[in-house]
Design a protein that fits this description.
Structural class: mainly beta
Radius of gyration: 28 Å
Mean pLDDT: 88
Number of helices: 4
Number of strands: 54
Length: 695
């Protein structure tokens, strides 16, 4: 018997029809399967990009600006200036919360008490970056006219001195409205640790007018995941004796510069700019008042055919890696010692000054792999367990009980919590969160031993995040990593860390503390402030066989900064060594014992003697002060390398090749990618520049 397909005019036998039926069934199943996969992927994608929605449980004791006694409206029509100012001035150290809404502003909002005498520990938290909007009235009084006296919409840099500890602005938008030519979106200062995170700053003027989007002061501090649209300058950082770290900055529609740095130590990762002006200007005040700018991973688009994307033509220190540009005359214009040089896109690695080494070393950085800090899950309020700091004098048992409650988030309202024994992080908990100025202190003899406050052990979540505390621990450690689980430490004034399990991962972000023992693991740190002193008998950082990548490090006092041993690899991108006291001769800044390191750093005031010591094959060499470059009050090294070529190949993930080829040299690397007096050696996924120095 034959069957006829009327649509196609093809006759099919019964056997053929069975084949067709089977094929159709298989096809339907395949379509169904692919559909399910697509839905799951789409759902996960939607989850990944969904807007933030920060909601606290009622027991968190946050100050909601829409509630009594402040009653801000957030309706886009009512002037909320007085209500917001009252909430901020009366609630230093507390979490000040802005639910979604548009809060109309007519004057500067200042992060200070009513007396104006205190400008530290202010925590401003929006419900979401896109939904919480502080909007300046159009053509507001004092914000238009001559640009000689710029005025901030949100001013969190009140007073003088390096005491603006812990200030934080997170998850909101600042809109400077229309016609406000003098407006600064946010003027921000923090010291030791503090952050601007998940913030948009924009001019909604048709011509994008405004003075500056984000004006930084003081430091060290962290800027993370920030977008700035419009203004003469997007981000501006001037002065000296401070440092800042930026990870994730999107600049657009600036009129003079996208980013302007003058004399400061500024370290940047993940920079995107869409502009018709120079994206980055690294400025100085003449000899030797230079800054040190580090940029790792940048895409600078738009441009102008007569301008460079990065302008470093005033003798400043500059280190750049993984840069692409479009539309600009040059990717980099660099002028040091009267010699002007240019680089075109793409730029794998660039150093403004000659690279320094003690032994024969590749003249490029280690190039360690970079991983992003895992984002903490913001659980719904019903999944939070509260630690009540008023229930008992000793809070150890209450903290452990909250962790063992089965909830995924454990939170500490603004209070002081005393701990007299080690707390195990186990079970379902994946986030431990201090709110506002939450503080942990050790007591009852626990402060005199080196046991940990938190011991991270096995649990259901592969990642544990601890954030939002300051502490007084004395001899106690903050953290003992006794699990293969990944640990994230962020927004903390709490140090003391040691690792007991090989192969795990640690992420540090916006943390002040010392005694960091990294061992046989992978570490990524962004904005780390470590200040151990000789009289304490403590250390700053020890890398014992680990891979340690640091973007933005600040230290002071008189203890070695980093010791690397047992084959460890340390990459420091942007270190600021502030000498606030004399450092005895023979105190080494960076000690490399038969291991590997690459360093970008500046030292102000008192100097380490030597800054760098390297021991290779039993031979010890020191980097003398004469081998460093001058800056006002100190020295800088835009790049020091201290490792064998084999380590570079290991870091790059390939073996060396004597000549470039299509497969090993996809970006057209040439000798110009290397400093003078070095030889290009191309690898399968990178390159090294070998100097001719003898051991």
């Amino acid at each position: 018997m034959k069957f006829k397909n009327l649509n196609l005019g093809i006759s099919l036998s019964t056997k053929q029809l069975n084949y067709v039926s089977q094929w159709r069934t298989q096809r339907q199943f395949l379509c169904f399967f692919l559909g399910v996969v697509f839905v799951l992927i789409a759902a996960n994608f939607a989850l990944a990009i969904q807007p933030d929605n920060i909601v606290f449980p009622s027991g968190a004791e946050v100050v909601n600006v829409k509630q009594a006694p402040y009653f801000a409206k957030g309706d886009g029509r009512t002037d909320d200036t007085a209500a917001i100012q009252a909430a901020i001035s009366a609630n230093r150290t507390k979490q000040i919360y802005f639910p979604n809404g548009t809060y109309l502003i007519s004057n500067s909002i200042r992060c200070t008490e009513t007396s104006g005498s205190n400008s530290k520990r202010y925590f401003l938290q929006g419900q979401s970056q896109g939904g919480t909007i502080l909007k300046l009235k159009n053509s507001a009084a004092g914000f238009s006219g001559s640009k000689a006296s710029p005025k901030a919409v949100l001013d969190c840099a009140i007073g003088s001195g390096a005491t603006a500890f812990r200030n934080a602005i997170r998850n909101l938008t600042i809109d400077t409205g229309r016609g406000n030519t003098k407006a600064v979106g946010l003027r921000f200062q923090a010291n030791n640790y503090g952050s601007v995170e998940a913030v948009t700053i924009r001019s909604s003027d048709a011509n994008k007018v405004g003075n500056t989007g984000l004006l930084l002061m003081g430091g060290p501090l962290l800027v993370k995941t920030v977008s700035i649209d419009g203004f003469d300058i997007g981000l501006s950082y001037s002065g000296a004796l401070y440092s800042a770290t930026v990870d994730g900055l999107n600049l657009s529609n600036q009129k003079v510069y996208g980013l302007y740095n003058k004399r400061q130590v500024l370290s940047i990762h993940n920079l995107v700019s869409t502009n018709s002006v120079t994206a980055v200007k690294n400025d100085s005040e003449g000899y030797p008042a230079y800054g040190l700018l580090t940029i790792v991973g940048a895409t600078l688009n738009g441009g102008a055919t007569n301008k460079p994307a990065i302008d470093n033509t005033r003798d400043g220190g500059l280190y750049v890696r993984n840069l692409t540009t479009s539309g600009y005359q040059y990717a980099i214009a660099n002028k040091v010692g009267g010699v002007l040089t240019h680089r075109v896109t793409p730029v794998n690695e660039f150093v403004s000054h000659s690279v320094r080494s003690l032994f024969s070393s590749p003249q490029v950085s280690l190039g360690l792999p970079i991983e992003e800090t895992p984002n903490a899950t913001w659980d719904p309020p019903e999944d939070w367990a509260k630690v009540d700091g008023t229930a008992a004098e000793d809070d150890t048992a209450a903290i452990q009980a909250a962790i063992d409650s089965g909830k995924t988030t454990v939170y500490f309202p603004n209070d002081n919590y005393e701990v007299s024994g080690t707390i195990e992080v186990r079970g379902n908990v994946r986030r431990i969160l201090g709110i506002g100025g939450a503080k942990i202190t050790t007591s009852n003899g626990f402060d005199n031993i080196d046991a940990p406050v938190f011991r991270i052990v096995a649990g259901t979540s592969p990642v544990v995040t601890i954030e939002g505390f300051e502490s007084e621990l004395d001899s106690s450690f903050g953290f003992e990593h006794a699990s293969s689980r990944t640990l994230v430490l962020k927004n903390l004034g709490m140090g003391g860390y040691r690792n007991l399990v090989s192969g795990n991962k640690l992420f540090i972000e916006n943390v002040a503390g010392w005694r960091w023992y990294f061992k046989n693991q992978q570490v990524w740190a962004r904005q780390l402030n470590s200040e151990a002193s000789s009289e304490s008998g403590l250390i700053n950082i020890e890398n014992d066989g680990a891979n340690v990548w640091i973007l933005g490090l600040k230290t002071e006092r008189d203890v070695p900064v980093i010791t690397t041993k047992n084959g460890g690899r340390t990459e420091l991108l942007g270190g600021f060594l502030y000498g606030n006291r004399g450092i005895p001769d023979g105190t080494v800044g960076f000690l490399n014992q038969e291991s590997s390191q690459s360093l970008v750093f500046a030292g102000y005031n008192s100097s380490y003697k030597p800054y760098v010591r390297e021991i290779r094959s039993g031979v010890s060499k020191d980097l003398s002060l004469a081998g460093l470059y001058p800056i006002k009050y100190g020295k800088m090294v835009p790049l020091f390398t201290g490792y064998a070529a084999s380590q570079s190949q290991q870091a790059a993930g390939g073996s060396s090749a004597s000549t470039p080829s299509a497969s090993t040299n996809p970006m057209g690397i040439t000798q110009q990618d290397c400093p003078l007096n070095t030889t290009l050696q191309v690898l399968s996924s990178g390159y090294v520049c070998l100097n001719s120095g003898a051991d």
